[in-house]
Design a protein that fits this description.
This protein is mostly beta strands and 803 residues long. The chain contains 8 helices and 57 strands. The strands form 14 sheets. Strands 23, 24, 25, 26 and 27 form a 5-stranded antiparallel β-sheet that branches. The longest helix is centred in the N-terminal third of the chain and has 25 residues.
């Protein structure tokens, strides 16, 4: 028997019966949900919840008669055995309170109890049964096909949103209901917070004169509209409420989530260029904003009427009242990043990652030519400025200065200062964005969302940070998945990954065929040319770590470098004898070292202030491909380094292909006649192939005539099969679907077939490699906790921070 305590105004225990005053109904409902949640957490499903099984008395609510309950086999103590009381396909319970799946003879679960709870709550409020019929057949048809016949009776005599809560409980499809009793309880708590007791008192409208009822109704509407905006000020001691918001079916929340300044709406970016999705928090329905295909980095106008967003290198805005998006400006980066909008009509924004680089810009909300307001200090390792957030005066803002530098962190800027004169005093050491609201700076530290008192006048932190939410998504590609509004609403998505990674083998169908070693922090992997060994980069969350080699036959793991600093992924020479990598200040130096570990590092190239990433060694070991990260003056660029030509200072790298677009990830074909690389010249990441000439017209390496774009729907991280007859790559933007394409070179002509989808794997973002025969994949896979987690909304977050 599960029970919960609530003070009732009679000494006699009696079965639940409606109607009762609404305030009492909501309190009783909360106790019933607590009892169900306690049972469900022990693996017990009631399967016959009805008013006669719920007793109410001085000691509160008691949910009785678990005679038809079923306990999950996994829920018992280790070694225990549970008895299954009913078989698949049988129908047990009370017909009037059965969920559709129970009537159809399917397995009942916790969501079946949620359906029954909705029926109980409906009856408790209205005194009527939600579904009726003159016969069992007509009753069954009503439950399976119809909506409760008098659901409209709930309005306007109940708090706003209660009808939607009941509708969600009574969804025919279990996947569309509240997924747990706790979710439904949070929703009821939210309703109680939005509608104070004065609003609930309108339930007496049935007993007043018509004109009084109309007046009370208008008062309720006005109160409902006002209460949310002033909640955090007028309800300082109100209870904090949490609820789960599920994203639309078949839609994946990708990089950014944002709650509106008034706390009423959520917007997020969807993967596969599916655009922006928005939802009013007092509604159960998401809607897609038309014309936002490819959108990223959404943020709000101060009045919550507009959403600004990026599409590639353009900043746009859309009016939520209707109409197409308006382009505000275009900037010289691969992709625009997140921004903020002040009450004077000015927008500040940055770029969207290392592959863009660059400063912060400002532009009018009406559009125009953007102007740089910060300067990137490339010689000190700074790559880009991003994620600005205005402070209350609308002139100062905080933002991230990011790069391969110990100076990376949160800084403050001013619209009145020149770009080169912005403050270099770091406020907080972090690689993630921060947000300001109501005297606090919010930021993520090791998966925990923290809040720390912040003085926006003195631009300094005070006191110690306080944890607000655990398990927040902090993967490097999800740095925008928390959002705070000054109205008291906080939204975030929990982390979809644990902090560790497991080296995992997959076949071409995506079946796991083995693992190597224990879970750890390896964030890259490259296989030796014969596939018998590997090299991984073990690094912490700050990118500091070293290279290790793997021997697959013996299972041995051997440390190769001992730098305790930033090191790039390792690349094998064609004979497997050496491994090239970048290290040093900002990865400004390329080294190689014997793969056996028996020898010293050899410096191949040093270019202070430039970040290098080696990607491929030619089959004759004469050339090394690498790319450089962008700076304010250059973009991602592919280079080839003659490895055997003289001393380090005499080795002259050659730029390939040298276009105005971001290019990276180049790899030699096995016969060294071609290179495949990634370019953003179309605005998307696509894979291209060019001929490679070891000795061009000037006696230096060059690209030959001809150019083939082999992907058109996105591609990244290409790999050649050892026989040169196939290219394998990640699709883009998902970066977790492995693709393959047959290729053939005939003289100076490169031919390629249609792309073939191999499998959907872990989101490893290039931390994978394929065996020489193309049959097995080794991935440094983040350990997935859940495949699709909902958005968590916290209401009245200031109450969390009150001492």
């Amino acid at each position: 028997m599960a029970s919960a305590t609530w003070s009732w105004n009679t000494s006699r225990v009696k079965p639940l019966h409606g109607p009762v005053p609404l305030e009492e109904a909501l309190a009783l409902a909360g106790q019933i949900l607590d009892a169900l949640d306690a049972a469900h957490r022990k693996g017990i499903k009631h399967r016959d919840l009805k008013p006669s099984n719920i007793l109410v008395g001085k000691e509160g609510v008691k949910v009785l008669d678990f005679g038809l309950a079923k306990m999950d086999r996994a829920a018992g103590p280790e070694g225990s055995t549970q008895t299954i009381l009913t078989g698949e396909g049988s129908i047990l319970g009370t017909l009037q309170y059965m969920a559709p799946e129970q009537i159809e003879g399917h397995e009942a679960d916790a969501r079946s109890d949620i359906f029954a709870f909705g029926l109980v709550l409906y009856e408790l409020i209205t005194g009527k049964r939600a579904f009726t019929g003159k016969s069992q057949a007509s009753l069954i048809a009503s439950i399976l096909k119809e909506q409760p016949h008098a659901l409209h009776d709930l309005q306007p005599l109940t708090p706003p949103g209660l009808e939607r809560v009941l509708e969600t409980c009574l969804e025919k499809d279990p996947d569309k209901r509240w997924q747990s009793a706790r979710d439904a309880k949070h929703a009821l708590d939210w309703i109680a917070a939005e509608a104070p007791r004065a609003a609930i008192a309108v339930s007496a409208a049935r007993r007043v004169r018509p004109w009084q009822g109309v007046a009370a109704l208008f008062a309720l509407i006005a109160l409902g509209l006002a209460v949310w905006m002033v909640w955090s000020k007028t309800q300082p001691s109100a209870q904090v409420s949490r609820l789960q918001v599920v994203v639309p079916e078949n839609v994946t929340l990708e990089y950014y989530l944002s709650v509106s300044p008034d706390g009423r709406k959520l917007v997020f970016t969807a993967s596969r260029k599916a655009g922006l999705w928005i939802r009013d928090l007092n509604s159960l329905d998401w809607r897609r904003l038309p014309g936002t295909e490819g959108a990223a980095s959404p943020f709000w106008s101060p009045d919550s009427r507009y959403v600004a967003f990026a599409v590639e290198n353009q900043l746009k805005k859309i009016d939520l009242a209707g109409g197409p998006p308006q382009t505000l400006c275009t900037v010289p980066v691969i992709s625009v990043g997140s921004g903020d909008w002040n009450r004077d009509g000015l927008i500040v924004f940055g770029s969207n990652g290392w592959d863009s680089g660059g400063p912060l810009w400002k532009v009018s909300e009406a559009g125009g030519v953007p102007t740089a307001i910060t300067a990137v200090d490339a010689p000190k390792g700074e790559v880009h400025n991003w994620a600005p957030a205005f402070l209350p005066d609308g002139k100062h803002y905080i933002y991230v200065r990011s790069g391969a530098s110990e100076a990376t962190g949160i800084y403050a800027g001013s619209l009145d200062a020149k770009p080169a004169d912005q403050s270099r005093e770091r406020i907080l050491a972090t690689r993630s964005p921060a947000s300001y609201a109501n005297g606090f700076l919010f930021f993520v530290r090791q998966g925990t969302l923290m809040a720390q008192a912040f003085d926006p006048g003195r631009l300094q932190l005070n006191g110690e940070p306080v944890p607000v939410a655990e398990g927040v998504d902090t993967t490097w590609f999800s740095l925008g998945l928390f959002s705070v509004s000054p109205s008291g609403a906080l939204a975030y998505r929990a982390s979809t990954f644990s902090g560790s990674r497991q080296l995992t083998w997959f076949d071409r169908q995506g079946k796991i065929v083995g693992t190597f070693g224990q879970a750890g922090t390896d964030n890259s992997v490259h296989l030796s040319p014969d596939g018998t060994r590997g090299v991984v980069r073990e690094a912490n969350s700050n990118g500091v770590g070293d290279l290790w080699t793997l021997d697959f036959s013996s299972g041995q793991r051997t440390r190769l470098t001992f730098r305790h600093s930033a090191v790039s992924p390792g690349v094998w020479s064609a004979d497997g004898s050496r491994i090239a990598f970048a290290a040093g200040n900002l990865l400004d130096t390329i080294y190689d070292k014997p793969s056996s570990g028996a020898g010293d590092e050899r410096e191949l190239l040093k270019e202070p202030g430039i970040v290098h990433t080696p990607t491929s060694w030619s089959s004759d070991s004469r050339f090394l491909l690498y790319y450089t990260d962008p700076s304010p003056k250059t973009r991602n660029s592919v280079w080839v380094l003659p490895v055997t030509a003289g001393a380090p200072g005499e080795r002259k790298p050659v730029l390939l292909p040298g276009t105005p677009f971001n290019e990276w990830g180049a790899v030699f074909s096995p016969d060294m006649h071609w290179i495949a690389y990634v370019s953003a010249e179309t605005g998307d990441r696509e894979i291209y192939v060019r001929p490679f000439v070891a000795s061009g017209p000037s006696g230096v390496p060059a690209l030959g005539q001809g150019k083939w774009q082999i992907t058109k729907d996105g591609g990244n991280f290409p790999r050649w099969r050892a026989d040169g007859k196939e290219l394998i790559y990640d699709d883009f933007p998902s970066s977790y679907v492995k693709m393959a394409m047959e290729v053939k070179a005939s003289g100076a002509v490169f031919e390629f077939g249609n792309p073939q989808r191999l499998f959907t794997g872990p989101i490893d973002f290039g931390a994978w490699d394929v065996t020489p025969d193309g049959r097995r994949f080794l991935s440094s896979a983040p350990q997935v906790q859940q495949s699709a987690l909902p958005i968590t909304v916290v209401l009245n977050w200031p109450a969390l921070l009150k001492k």
